[in-house]
Every structure is written in structure tokens, then in C-alpha cells.
Amino acid sequence: MINKIINELNTKKVLILGFGREGRSTYKFIRKHLPTKKLYINDLADLSNDEMLKDDENVELNCGESYLDDLENYDIIMKTPGITLKDVDLTNIRSKISSELELVLKYTSTYTIGITGTKGKSTTSSMLYKILTDQGIKVLFAGNIGIPVFDIIDEIQDNNYLVLEMSSHQLEFIDHSPKIAAFLNIFEEHLDHHNCYDEYIEAKCNIFSHQVKGNYFLYNGDSEIIRNKVNMHPTLAKKYAVSLSNSRNFTVDTDVVGFDGTNVSINNKPYYNANSKRHLQGQHNLNNIMFVVAIAKILKLDMEKAVESINAFKPLEHRLECVGTFDGITYYNDSISTIPQATINAVETLKDVDSLIIGGVDRGVDYTILIDYLNRSNVKNLICMPNTGTKIGKAVYNKNMKVHFVDDLESAVAKAKEVTAKGSICVLSPAAASYGFFKNFEERGRAFKELIKK
């Protein structure tokens, strides 16, 4: 595989577009195998004093506002996920756009399993990785989880598995799909990266639209949007519809992963008892578990061991993470919640939420569903940070809820300590991205935990 990738890159004019985590990974990979090849790197940030590049005479930089100009002058554009091309005319460059993920999917012979969805992909892919590891199977894990696939490329072998967490940013320009593809859910998100919601959905569909006969595709059968897209993008893969509502209204060529209120079944045969003692709570996590159960069955794993691994799996950091109980108040860090539906899931799962902290950058997401939910919820205190929190707080009219407007996360935590009833719960579940206030949701979550512990 590596030789095939190098051969494709060797004779062509290569641009690395974006020099963040994945751009640096791409650069290191190329320099390891092609140490003197002329490379071009474009980024909005100034890279003139970058330590990694300072001694490389075979690099030409284009940094600043013009970094997206003249892209048609390159043979291969290694686009990193953080770069958006929504305002760029793709007519002459679409066929040139590639990425680490695209090249690995194109050339690898290993068994690839891709997980995507607006929410739950990190939890689901991590849980699947644990199941495979617990059964002594050789497996690697990369992608949107924070590990560029070129960082582990030397370890990829034909006889192992590769679990890939795949974001819309990574999927939007790929022309190859994994052998097993899981499409967990879809909600309005990333409208700052895509021109519209449908463009975002179409990017997600690339996880299955290039699959071939002998592949497997699992999708959320309760989502009308996903069902319609599946009908619009015929696939040769074997289809599995995952349905929490236990719907059986699918085509005859589709296997059904259903839930009857107690058991998760595949074509009516039970494989997982949802009443088992497990760390992952909430219907949204049960949905994730259903996908993992089906993939474990497809891979012919030991299902009893798989169930043990599922029940032992603990939530990832910043995902309904219990920070602890301080002065009689139990705090939860759910900084990963960047959309309204995720915040609703958090409140529904925790149930006894007295104070909810919301707010972040406004990316044009419709908050009607969250406002309607808050107006009928039992949340006693809504603590609203700019910018979206302020907007939501002004629209809420629940007479049993007190709305508090604050300037930042620090004042939100202070207000939570002041107003939250002893013996109850305060959760940070912002329903918005953190950009402009924090680098990412992880930084926001860590800041929240530090403030709580102080």
C-alpha cells in the first residue's frame, strides 16, 4: 500500500492544503519516503517560522488570505479536514482533491470499518475498537478521533482491522468507502464548513456510496433523511437498518437491527439485553450500542465477550462525564454537545437536571427544537452564555424556569454554584461550538472541570 501511495505522489505536483495536525502528518510521511521532492504548502496561518519546515529548501509556502488561490495549478491537493472549500469553484479542481483517508481507502487491503454520524461516532468507534481488542484481534484506530491515518500507516497490515472515525470534513471528497460503513444519525451541524445542510448530508453519504459487493452498510432506519438518501444512492453493499422504534418497514433486502424495549435483536434474534448493567446511558447510547452489536455479528465475533466489552465500556471524556459532587451538587461535563439534539439527549439521560449551562458560537443552526423542549422541561435554571445561549434564553418562556444571562464560562460556573439546588445536577451541555471562546470542545470541557474543582 505504501509503495502505491508513494508512486502516486512521486511524479506529481503535490499541494498540502492546511498545515494542522493532518497536514503535518502528510508532510512527515512524504518526507520520510520522498526526502527531496518539491512540495507546496498553503495555509491561512503564517508558516514562515515553523520549526518543522525551517530547514527544508524544497518547500514553497503560500500563506495568508491568498492560500486558496490558483489551486488548479497542482496535480494532487492533499486537503486536510479543517480547510473548507465551500466558497471555491471546484469545476477544475474536484478531481485533484485527495487526502490521507482517500489514499488509504484506495490502496489498503486491510479490513476497514468506518463510523460516521453527527453525534456518537467517537463513542461508537472507540467501543468497537475495545471489543476487537478485548478479543485479541489485531486492530488499529484512526481518523477523526485525533489520529491521522498516515501516523499509523506503517502498522497497517493485510491481516488486521482498521477502525476509522469519519467526519463530514474527511468524507466530502473521497471516492472510496470502507468495507463496513455505519451511518449513526444526522442532525443540522457544521454549516460553517458546508454551504447548506444537504451538502453536509451528501458528504456523509460518501461513507457508503462507493461501496462494492461484499461490503456492509448499517444506517439509522429511524431517520427519514437517511432513509431517503439511501434510496437516492443505491449501494451494492448488504444493508442493515438500525431501528430503536423497532420498525420493520424496510425493503426485503435489508436486515433489521431492532429493539423491543428489552432486547437488541437482528432479524428478531436477540443478542443484547438493554437492561444489562452498563456505563453508557441514554437512548442515544443504546443506538450506538445497536450498531456495535450488529458489526460484531457481521465480523463473527464471540458475542458473549462482545456484550461484556460493551457493558464495561465507559463514556469518553466530555461526553456526559461526571466531574464529581461538590458542595452537594453533581456536575457533568458534556462539552461535546454542539447541537440542540445532543443537549436534549443529555437532559433526558440525566433526568434530574436542576441547572443547564448552554451557549457558544452562532453557526446558523436552528434552535427551535431546543427552545420547544426547554419550554416543557423540568430544568429549573437555564444559564446562558453568549452568543447562542443569549438568543435561546430570550426565547424561552417556561414559567417554572429561571433564566440567567452570563458573560462567559467562569461566570456560568459561579452562577451554577449559587442557584443549583443541593442534591441535584448541573450539566454543561452547550448546544453550540466553542470557536471564538475556546480552541475546541475539549479545551472548553477541561476549563469547565478546572473551574468546578476550584
Task: Give the helix tally.
Answer: 14
Oligomeric organization of the protein chains: single chain
Query: At the first level of CATH, what is the class of the largest domain?
Result: Alpha Beta
| Fourth-level CATH superfamily of the largest domain | Mur-like, catalytic domain
Question: Which second-level CATH architecture of the largest domain applies?
Answer: 3-Layer(aba) Sandwich
CATH fold node name of the largest domain = UDP-N-acetylmuramoyl-L-alanine:D-glutamate ligase
Please summarize the sheet with the most strands. 9 strands, mixed
Summed over residues and divided by their number, the pLDDT gives a mean of: 95
Distance between the termini: 50 Å
The strand count comes to 20
The backbone outline, from C-alpha atoms, is globular
Radius of gyration: 23 Å
- Integer tally of domains: 3
Strand share of the residues? Answer: 15-25%
Structural class: alpha/beta
Helical fraction equals 25-40%
Widest β-sheet, arrangement of strands: 7-8-6-9-10-11-12-13-14
List unreliable stretches of 5+ residues.
none
What does this 3D model show about the protein?
The chain has helices spanning 2-10, 21-33, 100-107, 121-134, 168-171, 197-209, 224-232, 283-298, 303-312, 340-350, 368-376, 388-395, 409-419, 441-453, and strands at 14-17, 39-43, 59-63, 76-79, 97-98, 111-116, 139-143, 161-165, 180-183, 216-220, 238-243, 254-259, 263-266, 269-273, 321-326, 329-333, 353-358, 381-384, 402-405, 425-428. The protein is of the alpha/beta class and 454 residues long. The protein folds into three domains: 2-98, NAD(P)-binding Rossmann-like Domain (Rossmann fold, 3-Layer(aba) Sandwich), CATH 3.40.50; 101-312, UDP-N-acetylmuramoyl-L-alanine:D-glutamate ligase (3-Layer(aba) Sandwich); 321-453, Alpha-Beta Complex (Protein-Tyrosine Phosphatase, Chain A), CATH 3.90.190. The strands form three sheets. The chain has a nine-stranded mixed beta sheet with strand order 7-8-6-9-10-11-12-13-14, sandwiched between helices. The chain has a six-stranded mixed beta sheet with strand order 15-16-20-17-18-19, sandwiched between helices. It has a five-stranded parallel beta sheet with strand order 3-2-1-4-5. Helix 8 packs antiparallel against helix 9. The protein is globular. The mean pLDDT is 95.
